[in-house]
Amino acid sequence: MSTFITLSTGQKMPTVGLGTWKSAPGQVKQAVLAALDCGYTHLDCAAAYGNEQEVGEALALRLGAGKTLRREEVFVTSKLWNTKHEPQDVEEACRSSLTHLGLAYLDLYLMHWPMAFQRGKELMPRREDGSIRYSDTHYRDTWVAMESLVDKGLVRAIGLSNFNARQTGDIVGMAKHRPVVNQVECHPYLSQTHLLSYCQSTAVCVTAYSPLGSGDRPWASARDPSVLQDPRLGAVAQRYQKTPAQILLRWQVQRGVACIPKSVTPSRIQQNLQVFDFCLSNDDMKLISSFNRNERFIIPTVERDGKKVWRDAE
Ligand code: A2P
């Protein structure tokens, strides 16, 4: 099983990368250093995570002449936030991520969500009643602006995040530069089978975020189901002499899905990359897939006219 996925541009994206969402400033630099030092060559970042500057500090210590890694050996992704969807805001947003990360180009730049918020500096612009202020900018217009980032050499490829199959098809149908990736929440409780087969049929790689079930999401409750602690998963892990996290990641790798587990714990960071020295049987792949319950942990908490604006990706 290869340790990378070849994207439609020909770029080789390492199948397992380090996720940085929820990695607090003060923790993320050490996490990135631990990852780079134990063999990770794929980092997943976003302007909205508020920690790109610190990720950049770690990159500066390891990338470049006389250091351990060359720029071209590391695959770095960032994402355009919802308040930057107006076409005239896109390049500046990308340049800001590049400055924070200390890079001349990104390997991949994703549209973080299909919906646009009112432009401005506030991450989550809200009305007095707490509801989100949307903008009518369509993701197709944002995409065209993202395409010019490829033409200018600021990014090697562009892609999507949190897009459902219909929205992905919308972009595929109009794109000059095709989306190479759609990054979505994905784990055995939300197996995304339909979206995955659609994306695979059109050469869009799926990357799983929250592949371990995102137990540290800020709104998690003790009553929520935990995929990592599912006893059926524990039983599989025991049989393979692996940890439950490694089984969750291996399941994704074997179905052709890239994943970006987040951790700030060096031993876990290391463990999460060690998923290429064993193989799950077809029966175990099916067993883990059967855990699906369409359970979405990362639900956009935003509403318009009392209704959720964004439908499930399935
Ligand atoms: P921590 O960062 O404290 O190590 P996800 O990638 O699905 O968002 O999950 C992230 C959560 O999973 C974090 O709470 C992270 O904790 C935890 N985690 C990461 N790797 C492992 C692992 N190998 N075993 C158990 N928990 C893990």
From TrEMBL:
InterPro entries from the UniProt entry: AKR, AKR1A, Aldo/ket_reductase_CS, NAD(P)_OxRdtase_dom_sf, NADP_OxRdtase_dom
Domain NADP-dependent oxidoreductase: 16-292
The species this protein was found in: Tetraodon nigroviridis (Spotted green pufferfish)
Localization per Swiss-Prot or TrEMBL: Apical cell membrane; Cytoplasm, Cytosol
Keywords: Cell membrane, Cytoplasm, Membrane, NADP, Oxidoreductase
EC number(s) on file: 1.1.1.2
Protein name: alcohol dehydrogenase (NADP(+))
Site entry: Lowers pKa of active site Tyr: K79
GO cellular component: apical plasma membrane; cytosol
Presence of the UniProt keyword Membrane in the record: yes
Residue numbers binding substrate: H112
Reactions catalysed: a primary alcohol + NADP(+) = an aldehyde + NADPH + H(+); S-nitrosoglutathione + NADPH + H(+) = S-(hydroxysulfenamide)glutathione + NADP(+); S-nitroso-CoA + NADPH + H(+) = sulfinamide-CoA + NADP(+)
Name of a matching Pfam family: Aldo_ket_red
